[in-house]
Amino acid sequence: MSRDVLAPPLQKMSHGRNYRVNVVHDDFGGSKWNGLNKKSKTDVKGYQEPDLYGDDDDEEDPAANDIVETLNGGYELALPVPKSFYGGLIGMKGNTKRRIEEEAKCEIYVPRQNEKSNEVIIRAKERSQVCAAMRRIRHITASLRQKMKPTHFLAVALNSGEVKDNFIELKKKILEADLPGIDETLFISESSIHLTLGVYVLLDDAERKRALEELETCRSLLENLVTPFDLKMKGLEIMNDDPSATRVLYASVEAPELQKFSDQCLGHLQTTGLCATDNQTRDSVKLHMTVMNNRYRQEVKTCENSFDAREILKRFGDYDFGSAKCQALHLCVLKSRGEDGFYKITGSLEF
């Protein structure tokens, strides 16, 4: 029996892994199954990890158009990657970066944190190898993004007119009722009243610019809708099933045209890779206007994880906040404050 069968060659992989290279004996069609002939019998090809992301995806990624041929006949790509991903891309002791280089047969340069450049350089002999590395980097950064906290949200501002006035009146009535466990820190600021249409992870100027460009492409979705959108806010509801342990109390929103547009925008922005985890798993936007949120209170003092909203719902469950017109969507920075008390606005889609 051939020694190649009893003691087959081993192929060393990353992370200290070793794989046995199974060689089919010539008597059983070895030259056919291994792609070998007698002249190259010792030239055994080891295991190669398959590319799970398919060559067909290359041309769908705009970055593939930026691959250039170098003077030495190889290929190179300067791939913009936010610095927040560098740690995950390099991995513990460089293991992740090294694995990509071994599997895609390329060289990868990741800028140091103190460098101004945010472009990861990929170099390889073949264009397909550059694409393979690019796909792996895209996969890693997408996975890392889903673990990050949102940085921005898409909002409709409602901090003016009768909605604001009626909100202030309701807040006054609830506080005057002197209900157990209810205080002013639970309420959203009247300068920040809004609807949230989506949350995103935008890590640098390039991603914020791209998010605004993607938002602008949603303008075409307005063609068959009536704008400005009519909004009516009436009635109070909670996010959970137990009003005695409420975390978020909100006003119901009636806005059929805005609902259609929001759902279509959500579907488009989910394809950009910029959405936070919560947005990626949604089929539709839940239109609501937050009135009270236990998180606001937790930000200023130590307290319970919820509040009792039973008496609030009993007394004010049908409260009418009035109507409003929506003429713009704003991309806002989470947990920020602008000069007018509203959130800092990165950019807007006006209509």
CATH topology of the largest domain: Cyclic Phosphodiesterase, Chain: A
Strand line-up across the major sheet: 3-4-6-5
In CATH, what is the homologous superfamily of the largest domain? Cyclic phosphodiesterase
Q: Report the radius of gyration as a whole number of Å.
A: 28 Å
Give the helix tally: 11
* Overall SS class: alpha+beta
C-alpha termini separation: 79 Å
What is the overall silhouette?
Answer: elongated
Order of helices and strands: HEEHEEHHEEHEHEHEEHHEHHEEE
Give the overall pLDDT as a whole number. Answer: 87
Q: How many domain regions?
A: 3
Helix fraction, binned, reads 25-40%
The assigned CATH architecture of the largest domain is: Alpha-Beta Complex
CATH class of the largest domain: Alpha Beta
Q: What portion of the residues fall into strands of 2 or more residues? A: 15-25%
pLDDT < 50 stretches = 23-49
Number of strands: 14
- Main sheet attributes: strand count, strand direction, barrel closure: 4 strands, antiparallel
InterPro entries: AKAP7-like_phosphoesterase (IPR019510), ASCC1 (IPR009210), Cyclic_Pdiesterase (IPR009097), KH-I_ASCC1 (IPR047538), KH_dom (IPR004087), KH_dom_type_1 (IPR004088), KH_dom_type_1_sf (IPR036612)
Region (Disordered): 32-62
GO molecular function, one term: RNA binding
Protein name: K Homology domain-containing protein
